[in-house]
Predict the structure.
Amino acid sequence: MSMRNQGALEPAVVDKAIHWLVCLRFNHADEQTRRTFEQWLQQRPEHLLAWQRVEALGDEFTGIPVQLARHTLDSADRGIRRRDSLKLLSILATASATAWLGREYTPLPAMLAQQHSATGEQRSFELDDGSLIQLNSNSAVDSVFDTRKRLIILRRGEFIVNVGADERSAQTRPFWVQTRDGVMRAQSSRLLARERDDGTLLAVQGGAVTVFPGSSQPVADNGGNSVLTRTRLLFASGGVRELRDNGLDVWSWSSGVISARNMLLRDFIGELSRYRPGVLRCSDAVADRRVSGTFQLANLDQVLALVAQSLRLRVDYRTRYWVTLTAAS
């Protein structure tokens, strides 16, 4: 069994561990509650593993007002989507690692990455070989350059790279990008890589990229999947597949905007939620409404107001960290 599979946890187990964190740390727990918790803990090894991970994140709550922490964490016990409850937990945890709880618990590489961005922030920087990199919201990368190769490791989130000419090197070194789902070799390319739950999204503008799904490090430059310019795809350890076009311009964030064309509201809100802390969602009753337009990411409240006006929605702010779009009455 691989280390990835050994580290994976069922979503229901993670949710229950969060429930117990709420009960034991932020509510008054009587003796019966504690006994029930101990019984749950001993039922399966996965229960203990999930608890250890959630409890470690819970240590980050020191200094946060108890009411805010309880309100946020208790979301998992109110039946909201698991994605929302985990995001709320991660907002309060400075490690921002909760999204890995149901997969691999590997927050440290992202925390210690050479370059990273905060939620809602885009950053740009230049590498020694002349490559230009843009980080999207809540993203992290490392770079490893030696005499034989140039390697960018995506630790979290999303980035765009314009591959440099490597003029300072005696000979042009191959340029590689590594993600949790495989590696890519880029040749004079502008490429975008984004970590998603279902794999790594790759988009190419100019040049060509060769994809090696499932590889954990640069490999012999053969046997890969060639990707030409103007291509978008999704790859994971099992291979490469076509990316469904949901109406999002995946490059638009690099200009500080989100651009949508006949996009489902649920998908649009899911994208927008990447740029603000807390939970941003829409009710099922309005989820299939369509959004088109280009919106500035610098003012998300204004974006919500514009979308609400266009689609006849109401924006409910339960707190600044919990916003829901519903049908206007």
Observations:
- Residues 3-105 form one domain.
- Residues 132 and 280 are 31 Å apart (CA to CA).
- The longest helix spans residues 11-26.
